[in-house]
Amino acid sequence: MTADQLKQLIASGLVCEHIELEGDGRHWFATIVSPEFEGKRPIARHQRVYATLGERMKTDEVHALSMKTFTPGEWAAQS
């Protein structure tokens, strides 16, 4: 799977203002900014992203995905 394909999968199931991906095709690190993360704990945010990938996580199409998740306000404060 390419970074563009993974980005499209995440964006198709989650409203995102920003997505950065780095990886080797199986192991990925993502930075994701979404208003859908408002009021959610980090584990719930990660579960939300994993839900967009569905079976792809179980079939090893995406072997590993580490991520940092931010609300738009949290992301703006990073700058």
UniProtKB/TrEMBL annotation:
Pfam families to which the protein is assigned, alphabetical: BolA
Highest taxon of the lineage: Bacteria
InterPro entries, sorted: BolA, BolA-like_sf, BolA/IbaG_stress_morph_reg
Family indicated by similarity: Belongs to the BolA/IbaG family.
Name of protein: BolA family protein
Lineage: Bacteria, Pseudomonadati, Pseudomonadota, Betaproteobacteria, Burkholderiales
